[in-house]
Amino acid sequence: MQIMSSWATPDKRVLVLFSDAVTDFLFAFRQDRHQPEAGGILLGHRRGNHVEITHATERVLTDHRTRVSFVRENHGYQEKAVELWKSSHGTIGYIGEWHTHPETVPSPSLVDINQWSQLPSRNANNAAMLGVIVGITRLYVAVLRQNPPPTILQPERDVKRS
Predict the structure, then answer these.
(1) So what's the pLDDT on residue 67?
(2) Between 53 and 89, whose confidence is greater?
(3) Is the residue at 149 inside a domain?
(4) How is the chain split among helix, strand and coil, in percent rounded to 5?
(5) Residue 131's pLDDT is what?
(6) Mean pLDDT for the stretch of residues 64-82
(7) 70 belongs to a structural domain
(8) How far does CA 114 lie from the centroid of its chain?
(9) Are 42 and 141 in contact (CB under 8 A)?
């Protein structure tokens, strides 16, 4: 049986599951004092309001990276998303985006919040998306909708790495 980390809204109406393989992958990109930020997209299954993250992509060489910023280029990401969507017969889709921050307990910057506000409108059915920030020891996970501010999720099974 695969163990998953789970996150939920305070009212428990939205549950997000990350496979251990995905959390291991994300934490492999944690920043030290000198590394630039990294990021990619999240892919998985939607089940009503609930989401299971099964895949996370690695950055591509054309992304723009500094120690305190990450700008994802479209080239390469869409191809991976389409490939997984086709191979899963339409059950795995684009769920959101992830990137790193050089913080122990990460939180979104104003740039993150502004960029995240555009994600739901890029989705064909305006479905809620996820924004994930990988910190040095913890994740920040938020549900992104078109109008309201991000809804911060709380860990049900904590994903803390030392």
Answers:
(1) 64
(2) 53
(3) yes
(4) 20, 35, 45
(5) 93
(6) 69
(7) yes
(8) 16
(9) no
